[in-house]
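Q: Predict the assembly, please.
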Amino acid sequence: MNTFAPALMTDQYELTMISAALKDGTADRQCVFEVFARRLPGGRRYGVVAGPGRLIELIKNFRFGPAEVDFLRGAGIVDETTAKWLAGYRFSGDIDGYAEGELFFPGSPILTVSGTFAECVVLETLILSVLNHDSAVAAGAARMVTAARGRPIIEMGSRRTHEDSAVAAARAAYLAGFASTSNLAAGALYGIPTTGTSAHAFTLLHDDEPAAFASQVAALGKNTTLLVDTYDIGQGIRNAIAVAGPDLRAVRIDSGDLSVLAQHSRELLDSLGAVETQIVVSGDMDEYAIATLAAEPVDMYGAGTAVVTGSGAPTAGLVYKLVEVEGRPVVKRSENKATVGGRKTAVRRHKPTGTATEEIVVSQGVPDHAANDRLLQRSYIAAGEPVDFPTLQESREHLRQCLISIPWEGLKLSAGDPAIPVTIVPTV
Amino acid sequence: MNTFAPALMTDQYELTMISAALKDGTADRQCVFEVFARRLPGGRRYGVVAGPGRLIELIKNFRFGPAEVDFLRGAGIVDETTAKWLAGYRFSGDIDGYAEGELFFPGSPILTVSGTFAECVVLETLILSVLNHDSAVAAGAARMVTAARGRPIIEMGSRRTHEDSAVAAARAAYLAGFASTSNLAAGALYGIPTTGTSAHAFTLLHDDEPAAFASQVAALGKNTTLLVDTYDIGQGIRNAIAVAGPDLRAVRIDSGDLSVLAQHSRELLDSLGAVETQIVVSGDMDEYAIATLAAEPVDMYGAGTAVVTGSGAPTAGLVYKLVEVEGRPVVKRSENKATVGGRKTAVRRHKPTGTATEEIVVSQGVPDHAANDRLLQRSYIAAGEPVDFPTLQESREHLRQCLISIPWEGLKLSAGDPAIPVTIVPTV
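A: Predicted assembly structure:
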């Protein structure tokens, strides 16, 4: 069991840097760090900012308690001065960033952390862990939602990822437009609708399939989903309707050629008078599998592995870079990683119709912006105090609107360029 | 913050199945569930069992407290009978499985859970989450260790995955043979050696590179690693040796064409008299990048993204299936997922030289086994009580021995068949 505070979920070099900086007097230099992606994974056309809501809570409680400090001192990782500094740590700077549910592109400054070097650098691992994980899941999930064309998707991938990631993944998928999750902790923590009825084991436990279905209907009523593919799907559907009657809510199919099976199942259900009984399909669903089923009589999808692993891109490629020291822009100069220094401000420009056209990012200044433009950064923490920010529900709606606003090519599933260009204007 | 117990990190359908089974009297039927993989991801030649050490601790503490039960009842997910059952839950059955660090192949029964239907089914999500995550990381990490041919690898991927996954990933990478981790919580929880010195931000914070190096050496001594690629690598190395002297422990290069840079850096270090100063390389390291550097003068690797995301296979594809009810083998019959029912026992056969030749898995019986063979399952929990099992250090050594034992083709990085065949012998 993890008996250490989240503050220890950090990379050692942050603390050794703080040790050295406390010793040489640079620890208190005012710095600005920025989180951004150099590129989008695998030819994706947009990224989705996910995680700030979770992150701000974690930063608010980011403390090194006696157990953590004792470990660090005992292991010789920090000296006495640093141990004392850590024991008194509380972030007192500012954090600004893109709203949760906002789209981002290569170079978008999605989070800006300002304060002393030491108080900012110690948050690096936590900030990147939360944003890289949650944004990776949300980006893949958003593509699935687009592919599903309004049909609901259930997130059911908990078992395919770390037990704690599973809860955050359910949150990110809901942000991206999924209808519900199988993960109960996500329901309890974030108020996400939960769903789930039965597995093949439940059918196998019983003497036969009708007995299993009768038991489920007796316990959960007819407003339930019967899993009909344990033995033979056709017989399974007949058994389901025989037991529950034609007003059964739904049947689920978890294996086989889902296109053909959905058609046959619809015909069979209709022939049995179960014209309102829905068809739920699951099993290796990603955005491509969902798109393939667009024309089939499917009412709902269940997605697991692909959603919790970012559908081929399990991390969002976000980095945390020092861009300003005491008001002076700084930048790493080694080849192929040229970035622009200085604190950046971002605006997204739109046509009068509302379609986004470009993102302008200005270093140490504010871009010109007109009525159709939108400044993208907001305050999350001001002088160490968290600021109110939107609910998960509001962020979900914000993403929905953002996806409507990008040029239609941006919603294609194929690999391509970012949906809109980002122009970074260096310090004049 | 997660304020709910791990018992809530579960899929809703487990609890609805329990509700129905409590109602119809099947909840107490004696069952056997098995964890296995139908295939290895991406043409991998072996899987690595990782996670049991973490899992058994979590199962020992798997309880539904008042907060969890209140949520489930309040949300209408469980009825009163089930709520009462959950409140009294404590696993009282048996868990047997492959040792941590053991290899597995498609069909290997790596974990066997026996008890009543209800007490076993409720553990499904937790068991799969832990084993799927940890085994995915360990499998990719083991390939990197093979590719590194004895050179040490540092795990530094925390920032690329969920903050809690990061700690488990560091553990799995260490199990697989990594030398150390940057993750402090993994050091504190599991006794894994931690390492880490400085980032580019530390150099940028200072007025110039020599000032940053001098500060680091003043704080950490010459037995440290200076990051030399913030500006110009050649100048960085000259600055490093000028500041620290020729007995500096190591320099790190994090970008660029690492083959060429390692050669040039070695020549330069030697010309400066720093013949013992080591070269550490990092930046997008996976098993293929490591293999490419085999002939270069590299002393140590740092791996991040690839290791925490399973190097292309972020989940191990393990499933949890009901195989026996009241002593009777059961199996799902739908197409393409034919499995053999019944509790299985596994033996790995070896040549007299120690090379593994095959795995034999027998349903409801014990395979013949001779002196060179090894029964693969051991007890983890007996009648609800955890049994002593090997330390992480011992499991690490076990994996090292297992990798020596497989045919040499099994260690190739290219896609191929499993290193040894698994024959599953159905119930006679």
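The longest strand of chain A covers residues 30-37. The domain at 152-310 of chain A is CATH 3.20.20.70 (TIM Barrel).
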